Amino acid sequence: xxxxxxxxxxxxxxxxxxxxxxxxxxxxxxxxxxxxxxxxxxxxxxxxxxxxxxxxxxxxxxxxxxxxxxxxxxxxxxxxxxxxxxxxxxxxxxxxxxxxxxxxxxxxxxxxxxxxxxxxxxxxxxxxxxxxxxxxxxxxxxxxxxxxxxxxxxxxxxxxxxxxxxxxxxxxxxxxxxxxxxxxxxxxxxxxxxxxxxxxxxxxxxxxxxxxxxxxxxxxxxxxxx
Length: 226
Description:
The protein is mainly alpha-helical. The protein has helices at about 5-25, 30-65, 75-85, 90-105, 120, 125-135, 145-155, 170-185, and strands spanning about 195-205, 210-220. Helix 2 (about 30-65) packs across helix 3 (about 75-85). The radius of gyration is 23 Å and the shape is elongated.
């Protein structure tokens, strides 16, 4: 999968070498500076493109995981994204965000950088805390679908009912849906039977430069499970 730091590091290293040579007097300082700046700019570009590709892969995987499919071992994209979503670090991060929202709701209604829908969410503070607690129970596994829903609830500032602009009436249903999905059983297996298989090829283009992505949605044979 695309790794922004790994994509940028080799060219950034060339910039450091150029500066080191200039410091040692092996090459003219002006020439080394030009080379270093050019390399750093190229490294930044490679990192940004890798970040874009990584973001696109996440969105593709989330669209499938949101349906509740089981993660087939041969679906490299879903295996990667499910592991990323359900890892302890991500669970702690999302739990902490929910606890932060709970603390904000318990304070007086002051001006806040986070446009919380206080009036709609405050009556359901217990559900917010229950969701935070469930995520923090690291000894209990969680389903990738539930993690996708929690991330969307916390990060979608336009449609999430937690924030101003969301529908007030959707708050309890959204929180309960997340809680249920974290414990829920997944549906059909991705990549087997009649489900759509996702095969991800992460290749290098331009002589090993920028990482590219191509997702192929292949229909499995219609004769049932393989």
